[in-house]
Amino acid sequence: MPAAAATRLDETTEGSLDSALERVFGFHDFRPGQREIVEALLAGEDLLAVMPTGGGKSLCYQLPAVMKPGLTLVVSPLIALMDNQVAQLRLLGVEAAAVHSGVDRGERARIWQSIKEGRLKLLYLSPELLGTERLQAALDRLPITQIIVDEVHCVSQWGHDFRPDYRNLAALPGRYPGACVAGFTATADRVTREDITNELFKDRHARVFVHGFDRPNIKLTVMEKDRPERQLLDILARFPGQQGIVYRLARKATEETAGNLEAAGHRAVAYHAGLDGSLRKELLDRFLTEPDLIVVATIAFGMGIDKPDIRFVVHLDLPGNLEAYYQEIGRAGRDGNPAEAIMLYGFDDIRRRRWLIENGTASDAQKRVEHRRLDALLAFTETSGCRKQALLGYFGEAPPPCGACDRCLEPPELSDATGLAQALLGAIRATDTRFGQAHLLDVLTGEQTAKVAQFGHDRLEVFGAARGMDKRVLRNAVRQLYASGVIEVDIAGHGALRPGRKAAAIVAGEETIALDLTAPRKKPGKARKGASGASQAAASLDAADAGLLRALKALRLEIAREIDKPAYVVFSDATLNDMAQKRPADQAGFLAVDGVGETKRSLYGERFIAAIRDFTG
Ligand code: ADP
Ligand code: ZN
């Protein structure tokens, strides 16, 4: 649309946009992509915006909703998220309300009244209500200027979350020709985007904004799994008092790990699908409100976790595939502050995942697809290059090296391991593909174990072929050979090794293979002090600031309990950090804190300023 409208915006509203951002939200800058979308909506354009989770989608339509005359409808699929958004907006001094099945008649009457009086700026609605004629008739009389569809990929049958209720939305653009329609989502590939455009916008032209999948504040690390529980404690030592999720594959494992964490003095709970519904809801509530609770969970802990200040996601077991991995780590760092995703994985993880695929109920064709997806994940875990490049490459992007992942910080030293691979394959063949990794490595290193003696394997040509090599280096090599298809594992039986699809070429000397044969680092991730974003942020606060920060967090929790909302609804971690550093002594200083707008200043300024004064004495 209208270049004219856009030009007009450039000239007149640029300054007022920034000041509205500051006044209402207390933010000093837009995040990447936000400004263009806000401007397009102010100009009345239809649009589809694909932005990564945590990219700041809500602000893109909330700011225009505040600045424009009339009412903005927001369709959103999850009631809890709607309610939290409304609570956040009210604390910003913006009149907002939600209508869904959980809202009683009295409350509805009050909402309609405030719409009539022209006070309400945003009305959140569940998609199923939109299908009712009664509600539509009521909406027809309203001065609707924007219709926002959140999680718009639910419209598409191609998306993974198709919701039949979202089909009700297709009628909206026709019914409200004067309102602009905008869809927002974090996940929509090209096919889904086309489908959304056809379903929702039909013959109206919608501008498409796609902002990358990169989450630059999340640092990626993959470590060899050695003693996972011990390694986890080392990792957590870098996140004192901070919150995170630890993913495990099995229900029992979540309970064991949570128990170990508790024993080591952390606050941790286990979460999985075997727990009953009310307990799960209670745990989720606790996770949202208790600032240092660690959840050790299976993938059952997922949908609906919208907490901005999760600082770490640790995978203690290999995730299912790269898309699942991306979604799971995507729960970290939604506030844009440094966060880390750390994965531990080893030989047995690969074997278990293959086993799960083979023993699942899927068709053979589907199993082949699952194996290929696992291969893609393994290519990521074993990559010698940048993790970000490997991950985003899978989603079709080609970013430059991130400079922050474990591979960028400490590139692996690859050396030719063709001879070693040939020796291992030789040992596998000479022992009739009947033995597992441990015994084969004993043979290669020339160890006189009882089993070696029993089978006379010390007489094999390959006996002692890798004498003197560190067993851990060898186990690592075996894992790398497994991940790259040089060997396979009999997953149904006792884990005997077999030649893989690439074995013949290696044995024939047609192909070479390079592996990382360096001794495993003791505590990877610690390698470079200060390299980790999260610990850097923590380090930049000195001890006094840290004490003040604790006091501010305690006050935030107190207020959150008073208004019965999650703590981040009051203030984000980023805002409290900034507050601890700026230490405002008066209202004007308080307003200068990032994330403090007019309304929150008047609501909470006094209490926080008093807390700072108490602390600084
Ligand atoms: P999304 O819906 O895209 O996952 P949100 O809208 O929930 O993301 O925003 C994520 C976090 O980023 C929130 O805490 C929000 O307050 C914060 N945020 C959004 N825009 C800005 C900005 N311009 N400056 C600072 N923080 C922002
Ligand atoms: Zn990198």
Please write out the topology.
Blueprint: H1 3-12, H2 14-25, H3 34-42, E1 47-50, H4 57-67, E2 71-75, H5 79-91, E3 96-99, H6 105-116, E4 122-125, H7 127-130, H8 133-140, E5 144-149, H9 172-175, E6 180-185, H10 190-201, E7 207-210, E8 218-224, H11 228-236, E9 244-247, H12 251-263, E10 268-271, H13 277-289, E11 294-297, E12 312-315, H14 322-329, E13 339-345, H15 347-358, H16 364-381, H17 387-394, H18 406-409, E14 414-416, H19 418-430, H20 437-445, H21 450-455, H22 471-483, E15 487-489, E16 497-499, H23 503-507, E17 514-516, H24 533-540, H25 543-563, H26 567-570, H27 573-582, H28 587-591, H29 598-616
Parallel strand pairs: 1-6, 1-7, 2-4, 2-5, 3-4, 5-6, 8-13, 9-11, 9-12, 10-11, 12-13
Antiparallel strand pairs: 14-17, 15-16
The chain binds adenosine-5'-diphosphate (ADP) and zinc ion.
| Distinct small molecules | adenosine-5'-diphosphate, zinc ion
> Percent range for helical residues?
40-55%
Distance between the termini: 57 Å
Count of separate structural domains: 4
Computed over alpha carbons, the radius of gyration is: 28 Å
Number of helices: 29
The count of DSSP E runs of length 2 or more, i.e. the number of strands, is 17
- Class of the largest domain in CATH? Alpha Beta
Name the overall outline.
Answer: globular
The unreliable regions are 1-13, 522-540
Classified in CATH, the superfamily of the largest domain is P-loop containing nucleotide triphosphate hydrolases
Main sheet specs = 7 strands, parallel
What portion of the residues fall into strands of 2 or more residues? 5-15%
CATH architecture of the largest domain: 3-Layer(aba) Sandwich
